[in-house]
């Protein structure tokens, strides 16, 4: 079995030891990037064992992204800058799970939050959740903090950075280190000053300073911690996926990429309920029949969004 | 074309005028129940035209359910009971989109909210959102309000009703009129007193009164209003689905049930952004290529949960 | 004893039956206006019996104003307009107790809320609570709702009304009917259309409509209800004030205006705790001594702000 | 002038150099404790210069306590324990400004929060804000975190500590180091293990561990930081108080303890508005006259609670 996070191991075996795939029963992949690479292999007809995409299981998505980032954005900013959130103007680029978590947390702490989005559905959600939907240019001169959570590249460009006000804080909660065009700041007219671990002041000729966190890498990994509870959920999901692929009867999984079966997703959740002393209700026979459900789940169709 | 809500028209044509289906290009169905009936027809191999399930489009789900109910639960309770929400203990049965909306609203108004769930994933979401997950029996004696949003039947039984405290309010935000076992209250030892339109006091021999709203039918339809904004989203979705089925080239849709194509879902959302003066960001060519997306969408895979 | 609300009864007795004051043991006054009139009488040396200002007791202020308005702003708007709160831009004039309640409620419902203030302390509170502090002119063209809660006059002028966008809703949660300059709308070029009880459309020559609620009178009194819980707190406060003045030993109260003794304020609160099944902790002897407090209260100095 | 925080300098001069008071124009005191000592001196007739209590100015109270603690409780817990807040059960002892801040923050992060109180008014506020009011004994076995913010002593006793569940976190946001009876944990049958700076595990004979932060001293000072914004407000208040006492005409201040004049409190606030780009509204002459106010303030009576 391969348990991978990012797809590098998978890639390496493909390149160096392709024969090993004869003995490998399956791949379990954790990350957006790795999953992307698997889907490409699959499209190209080159995936030679079943693979399971655990990145998109509900428990992983909601916990690793929404709930975890709701807390780590505050933690990461506090540890690096000691700033006060109340009254600060913040623009958050991207209103996916990570963006939703960051927005909720900062709004709750009294920040005034603006959102940018490319997807009209997420944009409408931002509106209904009480955030002004703007283009970055509209607010870049006035905000105190810029946070990227898009999974995209060059969302914050040198032009944006040039227009930010003095002591604006810039950081990335999204993906890799591509969202902020940090390379554009490595030019002779700008001075870099490391003021603390993970915190750089980039200084313009007129004295304006931008506070860049973690050199544009992930704030939640570089400047915050991942709670054990989130690790437990992720690890449980991975372990169950490995067991499922290993034990699956011949033919259940072909040479393709699969989502974790919903029943397993539900099982991961149920294993974590006791820590909250949470008491689940059981369907009666009559209710299960009425709903056309098995009393032990799965409880939702595959397209259910939670 | 058939534009249906609940499946009754479809059913009636099947029964009385089956020949009409030769001329019908498709069915657009709006409701959970109607969609359920369509999937059953499809399974049984009896669906003879393409059908589109607009109930499960994102815009419909989030707006008709989450965002609309977040407001109508407050509206419905105020119009019928004039109660104060602050400090009240409330149990909400079901933490789907409707339950999430009701919980968020009442928590924001200062109620203490308990949640019951059968699905461990939704249960874990309730925990992370700050609600105690209980079985109904654990809190039934102490709560001031009981709200059902499960889509299930007999969630509140006579036994529960017997144990509620005096002047407890009971209402249904979920589905049809099955969630509260109202029939069990039509017994000789209980007295019904209509105190106001949509409000009944059910009186126990010892004088205890339960305040039953809308006789257990949907509070949001019986005692509140649906904002025009939500109607606009729903109607737009229906109209686009009709146009899509009508204009689709031969063979795109078979005799099956389809979800609204994501691009249309996104289009519905984009049509409603201007009312919020919301400004969508456009991908640059470079970004679209990086993400492997068309600049005009769709922006997400089908399994994306929002 | 006189139990007054607004000072009219007091004024009338002063004018018509001044001799009655020989037999009157005291006045209990409920409203801002009445209290203002009493303080003026006192300043002028004309107050001839003790008076108790119950308007400024904590329980009255927080419940009648903050907590009650937090709910009645939503109720009043829903009953009159059926609008959806999510995504709406709202400006709230005044960030006192009433304004704080309105802001908290609408923010929780997903509105984007701007605040205007004259007092820098309240203004700073608005900032820390996450609201943009603006002058009315800055946002008047873009907002969907204008709510006044200042206690002032002509806060919304004809000039503001001229600049509002089509279908903007205007209402008053503050004081009397002075906050919106409704008189300025009674001019020939504007057409008034009563669309529903308490709801007028005022129509400009170019077709623009403003939705004026309750003709600028108090929304919370005209279009919403006051929960019995709030009435109970207010009535208890009044009753205790009457008893206190009646039973007070000669000389405790002179011909002046008094705040309700803190111990009574605390007593009113304690009488309302059982409805929430709330369990108060008692100080141990050792703790009471350490804090220099009587175990039965009062627990705070008079200047404590809660 | 004496600028004191805690009253130690004042005490020391009283004891060692009482003659210096002949040349001292006044004392400005920052802390609860120091203010308490000044009031005692004043009661005893021993205060020989005017003193200004800046602890109870609005800006100090709300910023140093409510708004600052709303953030530092999260910061302090994260830096020491890396715990996840979502779903955790927390009991907060005391619902004053500090308790209100802690409760709001943890509720917003998805914790389930219980409150204990001795004062019925604060208790009723806790109810209206959506918190179950309990005695500590009722929830001590089930909570994950215990936070004290009472200003009292021995709020958490050895008996409570004995009954907490394994890995319960205990910390103090209130006053000094008296709130948790830490001394009671220094007994032979309990083992202390320092797991990290400011974090001790106290281990019971059966293996149960309690996580004690900062040995019961103030979490917000020991394990978090005070934002510069809060320091600026406090320092401004102190400086203005010094200037006021120094410049005051003979006789304005006697040998007593004074609150900062409201106009200065408002001035401190107004100096901090520009950092939020906040725009204050000015009263028109007509409005100022209507309200009976000076256009430059003060805007509220002394008993106003904000």
From TrEMBL, chains A, B, C, D:
Gene3D superfamilies found in the cross-reference section: Adenosylhomocysteinase-like, NAD(P)-binding Rossmann-like Domain
PROSITE patterns hit by this protein: ADOHCYASE_2
Superkingdom of origin: Eukaryota
Domain S-adenosyl-L-homocysteine hydrolase NAD binding: 65-226
Claim: NAD is one of the keywords in the record: yes
Biological-process GO terms, alphabetical: one-carbon metabolic process; S-adenosylmethionine cycle
Keywords: NAD, One-carbon metabolism
Pfam families the UniProt entry points to: AdoHcyase (PF05221), AdoHcyase_NAD (PF00670)
Cofactors required: NAD(+)
Key word Endoplasmic reticulum present: no
GO cellular component: cytosol
Coiled coil: none
InterPro entries assigned to the protein according to its UniProt record, in alphabetical order: Adenosylhomocyst_ase-like_sf, Adenosylhomocysteinase-like, Ado_hCys_hydrolase_NAD-bd, NAD(P)-bd_dom_sf, S-Ado-L-homoCys_hydrolase_CS
Similarity section: Belongs to the adenosylhomocysteinase family.
Name by which UniProt lists this protein: Adenosylhomocysteinase like 2
Organism: Myotis myotis
